[in-house]
Write a structure and sequence with these properties.
Layout lengths: L1 H26 L2 H4 L3 H22 L19 H10 L8 H14 L7 H8 L5 E5 L10 H4 L7 H13 L1 E7 L3 H13 L13 E4 L2 H11 L3 E4 L2 H7 L5 E5 L11 E4 L2 H4 L4
Parallel strand pairs: 1-2, 1-4, 2-3, 4-5, 5-6
Helix pairs in contact: 1-3, 6-8
Length: about 270
């Protein structure tokens, strides 16, 4: 911008010098007109340059801006000051509105990314590689083996969490059943929910027993990093054998072992609901 202004000034001086040369040559006697026209041009250009330089040195570096008149009835204070400062902003400097927009864009860019469910599952399980889990009261809607004799229903809300666990962990499901029909109902419910089609769980990893002690034996033999159960007695018995346990209970117990966590549902433990 400054370079273009200087060029325009130089061209103006040259044109003005040429014009003065012609006028002066017309006014001078013939004897003086024989002088070299370039000499007149040089003299006139030098004079004009001196005049323009003097004018530029006299003028302030920046033109004074006219202060806006204060409107009648406008209270003196921060509002008037802000208005005056807004009018005095030099061209090329972004306004406060543009600054705020730029800050918003930067803040949005550097906002922490929300972790995925898979990342939450891995973090909660402390990178555990083997998990054993009871079905009744945790995966299934039913709360007792007697209810399974009638029907078995997989909780839709827990299905996504269950599938994520199968992606990162070696998962074993187990339950006490009263008859073979209950076992078939459970397997069919898991198959209908798509648990076996995900590739992380097979039917051989769904274990059934006839007693609660049998489930305890399964867990101890498998030696998982995590065990998930809804029976507080089983959780207590396994506390000294299993590294971490999750007790699914509608009411949080008053005292738990250091390695035992408690949550109303499996989904709430992983923050899905």
């Amino acid at each position: 911008m400054a370079d273009s202004s200087k060029e325009e000034l130089v061209q103006l001086i040259k044109r003005f010098g040429a014009y003065l040369t012609v006028k002066i040559s017309n006014l001078l006697p013939i004897s003086l007109q024989n002088l070299n026209s370039r000499s007149f041009g040089a003299i006139a250009g030098l004079a004009v340059a001196i005049v323009f330089t003097w004018r530029l040195l006299r003028s302030p570096s920046q033109p004074q801006r006219r202060q806006p008149k204060r409107q009648a009835g406008t209270p003196s204070g921060s509002g008037v000051s802000a208005h005056s400062n807004a009018n005095l902003v030099a061209p090329g400097i972004p306004s406060s509105l543009e600054d705020s927009r730029a800050h918003n864009v930067v803040d949005e860019f550097f906002q922490p990314v929300k972790p995925t469910l898979g990342q939450i599952v891995r973090q909660k399980l402390s990178e555990g590689r083997k998990v054993t889990c009871r079905l009744v009261g945790v995966i299934l809607e039913e709360s007792s083996p007697e209810e399974i004799q009638k029907q078995a229903t997989v909780r839709s809300s827990v299905l996504e969490v269950l599938l994520e666990i199968t992606k990162f962990c070696d998962l074993y499901l187990m339950e006490r059943v009263l008859d073979d029909e209950s076992e078939k109902k459970v397997l069919q419910a898991l198959e209908d929910a798509g648990v076996f089609t995900s590739g992380g769980l097979v039917k051989d990893k769904v274990l059934f027993c006839s007693t609660e002690n049998g489930r305890t034996s399964f867990v101890r033999q498998l030696e998982p990093d995590w065990h998930i159960d809804s029976n507080p007695e089983i959780v207590t018995q396994l506390a000294r054998f299993i590294k971490y346990q999750l007790h699914i209970s509608p009411t949080r117990p008053e005292r738990t072992a250091p390695n035992v966590f408690s949550a109303p549902t499996l989904e709430q433990f992983f923050g899905c609901v």
